[in-house]
Amino acid sequence: MTEAENTFNKNILIAVDESENARRAVSYVGQLLGGLPGFKVAVLHVVPEPEDDYFPTTAQREEWLAKYVQKIEALLEECRQALIGKGFDPKDVSVRSTLRYCPSMAECILAERDEARYSTIVVGRQGLSRSEEFLFGSISSKIVNHARNCTVWVVE
Amino acid sequence: MQMVARWLPPHQMPKRFRIHTDTSDFFRVDYDDVVILDNRPYLIRHNAKELRFGLKDEIKHWVKRVIDLEDGSLKIMKLVFYERFMSRVGGIEFECFRSPKKEARILDLVSEHRNFMHGYAKPDEKGNIIRVLDFIKGKTLATHVSRMDMNHETYYHEHFSRILDQFIECIQAIRFLHDHGEKHGDIRRDHILIDQETGDYRWIDFDFNYRHRENIYGYDLFGLGNILAFLAGKGDVLLQDLKKEDNPCLDTLSEADLNIVFHNRVVNLKKLYPYIPESLNRVLMHFSRGANRFYEHTSQLLNDLGEVKALIRPTPDNPEAIPPI
Q1: Residue B260: what are its φ and ψ, rounded to 5°?
Q2: Class of the CATH-defined domain B141-311
Q3: Is residue A2 part of a domain?
Q4: Could you give the CA distance from residue B89 to residue B63 in angstroms, rounded to a whole number?
Q5: Which of A37, A92, B19, B160 has the most CB atoms lying inside 10 A of its own CB?
Q6: Are B218 and A137 within 8 A, CB to CB?
Q7: CATH number at residue A23
Q8: Which sequence spans correspond to the domains of chain B?
Q9: According to the model, what pLDDT value does residue A8 have?
Q10: Nearest chain B Cα distance for residue A18, angstroms
Q11: Rounded to a whole number, what is the distance in Å from the CA of A38 to chain B's nearest CA?
Q12: Which chain A residues touch B84 with a CB distance below 8 Å?
């Protein structure tokens, strides 16, 4: 033990998208920590603000966004139920989706963490090939490289 | 009729023409028609064609060559064509789309920048964002380099330094876009035109966009790396060509020497051309299968190329020559 020892809270942030990897991350946290006292889990989905350029009209953009948000609400509820099913008290599981301008999803997730002070971030590994990582970047790699004052779990 | 007659020889004069103020159906906007945009008339001459590598020219019905009937200047007019599709690069699929809004925004942003095409955007009466572009006379960078009739060593020592200087300007231009939150979206060696009047290298065609994932500019950087390898190699150095010519270097190549996405292209060019400096080869290797780190920003690429330029200096005898290193 040293004087500079960090103190970590028992708040866990799981960042999810619609992928199987994200579901595995939720399942992992459920299996590992479900039923243990003191842990609080927040399941987060960052909705990347859709680029205006992608839509011919504003109405189409709004329609797309409404459908997307509906889909994400269902996903988050599914995650919440999965955690409760593994033994978490419902009051210790929260879900949150937030609309952000996201040139980098990793930075958006880290910004959310900074605002809410979770000691642990959990993400699923995307399983990208090297070529894909080169072309489009990896969210989990960037979170691992850029996270400060927290621990990152990348679930395979 | 009188306005048209000012700019066309009598034998090319259309007998009649249709006038369009709504260009929504771009197939209806045809040769010899006139489009009125913001009270300014443009006579349609041809549909534009795009040369695809090794394939037949693709006619782009939404892109027209026009004459501005106010001043007689030749312009390119891009009508609105929204399309979304899945693109495949080296087996990787990603979503692409065309956006007139994006191109209009960038035209505004780069109106004073000499390394981009210039023009303006105006809505037609239905709100379609039409882009009117200055016609750039000149060859593409791809054609320019491909047609240089000399061996690699001569090309490298006598021409590469100057071409690299110009290409570095092009990368700086892309950094300018990125600094303003914009992607080019379709970086290819035939999307740089060498302006015949000024000699400037100028980026064209920025209506393309892709749905980025984590690294917003990764695909743009990939395009820059491909062009750099093309320029340093005086063309793509393809495995199949090396095999065909039974090149002795073939035995020394490993998978790590190949392009990270196009696995038939060699990027470790120093193995073929030993006079290429290590610093340049190191840059190329960032785009290889053996790379440990990838470029995420144009500034990283520019920094490394700055070191390359410090080594590749013109000699006093030949101001364009590069001494072997």
Answers
A1: -65, -25
A2: mainly alpha
A3: no
A4: 25
A5: B160
A6: yes
A7: 3.40.50.620
A8: 2-80+118-134, 141-311
A9: 83
A10: 14
A11: 33
A12: 54
